[in-house]
Hints:
Layout: H1 12-26, H2 28-45, H3 52-58, H4 60-75, H5 93-120, H6 124-133, H7 139-146, H8 151-169, H9 172-177, H10 183-196, H11 198-226, H12 232-259
Amino acid sequence: xALSLLRVPPQRGAAxxxxxxRLFGRRPLAFSGLFLVFLFVVMxxxxxxxxxxxxxxxxxxxxxxxxxxxxxxxLADGPVQPGQFFEPLAEEPRRRRALIVLCVAYGVSAALLxxxxxxxxxxxxxxxxxxxxxxxxxxxxxxxLMAEPGVFLATVVGLSGATLLSVPFWHAPALVxxxxxxxxxxxxxxxxxxxxxxxxxxxxxxxxxxxISLFGAVTAIVLGIAGAPQLAGxxxxxxxxxxxxxxxxxxxxxxxxxxxxxxxxxxxxELDA
Length: 273
């Protein structure tokens, strides 16, 4: 597949989100099923002592690439199925090795970032995450952990580190799979592409923040008027799953605009108006 490093205007960031929702609307059940299958596999790794958490993070590059393969197939009116997560692993040995290197590098880097945040917060950030994940948590317990020294700094370091880590890995799996690049070359090309399109990525992030905030505000108002504010928690889970799925669907458009659509225009056909 022929690839060209392109530059896109900032407004394309909004189009990436829009096109993600539109493509998801074509195959909502298929894409949702794809994400749920991945979550099921993640749940299974929790039963593996010591290495379960590391494996979960190592699988994230395969998640993004699997969704890009599925989205590319959907754009050409092809199938969207869980087997697309494993399709890259059936590639020629050189590409498969490069992809495995990316997965290991991402998993180890993410684990080191989490360890650093845990050290900065003296373990408080991990306890806070566990408390929030437990469900209905008293507000005073959350406030007490938030007030512990190092939690704010650890949160800032974690968010900043995760953002920086995402840059070289954003396009890297796709560059290995479709572009045949080595792991190191793919990381470099991804970093360069994100930098060249940084305005579009800033808009992309802002639009996503706006969409989620608007959903939260509208939901709170509607449920408040209906006298059922307690239902907000019930809606949060399906809404979070849907937004996460649409986010991964939209990744193909960030790649298309950054590197072109290849030699076959049917592979990356534009969405119908």
